[in-house]
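Example record for the data management plan.
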Amino acid sequence: MRILVACNGGSLAAKVESGLRSNGEFDVSLLKRESVARSLAINQPSVILLTVGLDQSRDLQLIREFGLLAPNSAFGVIGPATDPKFILHVLKEGVGRYIDETEFQSELAEFIEEVGRSPTSHPVSTGRLVAVCGLSGGAGTTTIVLNCAVESARLHKRVALIDLDLRKGDLGPMLNIAPDHSISDFCRNLSRMDDVMFQQCFVPHSSGVHLLAAPIDDREISEVTPERILCLVMLARQRFPEIWVDVGDYYQPESAAVIAVAEQILCVLRQDFTSLKHAVGFMGFLSQHQIQSDRVSFVIGKYGQSKTLSLKDMESALGSKVLTTIPEDAASANEATNTGNPVLLGRPHSAISKAIRLVTDKLTPATRQA
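Corresponding structural encoding:
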């Protein structure tokens, strides 16, 4: 049984860890409370134990976030039994047991025993998450992620497209969509999010793409946090077969959180020295954040321009084969951008469209329908 203990240190945390580790049947992980979200998004434990802190409102917020990220995990909270109102709030959030810290050994053992007797929950269905990173300007990253989502929607009927390029937010205009809600609205209302509200955050497009737009006002960007974005991704995975995310600046915390949990990371770059420099920096970023590089695929955008580095030299410097190339076709790309009609729909037989279909086919070949 995997047990994750979320705490900020202290004697209680040490006692809880010691008590659990004394039982050789348990695989125990002890993490700081603020570091738990990423772990839950990657790997679901059987049990989550949260030790309460000094800020009750923050405790309740964490409980909601953890519940969204790990809906099948049993959840216990350990703290003082001196505030019945707070305990009631905790239990209303769906926590299975509030454990009195003064008697935690007996109550925790009883809770773990109950979990062991409970039938295993059915796993929540999870859609594939693809994070798309532009490693250089002018490579056509937004065009690529948009049209990959359109092609994916053709195969799956409906997919999610999330604009995490928070300050640019070009995906809405490129779909000729003026959204009423944005990613900031989701983050701001996370504590009361239900299925209806979640669906309302997304704008459906005739292609089958459901867009969650970037903030409409830059002043709303502060609402977007890594923890809330991980909750967004988890909810989207339960509702869409595929989720495509334009991560914008990959080094931003919310973008890094998505990259860390994505099944596929698609990096778009140009055939020039600065792109290679950024690619090397990106691989160092992955190593620093302990993200496996085998999930990364490179795509060359606007391929075929003059005076560029050769594809062979690019691959040698990257230490990896390029997945494919997207040819330069300014006429098709500009028409699509200016009309708000994706090139895959407006010019389905263009070289760009054919190359983008190849990208989606190579990234997720098992999902392609006959």
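Summary line stored alongside the record: The first helix runs from residue 11 to 21.
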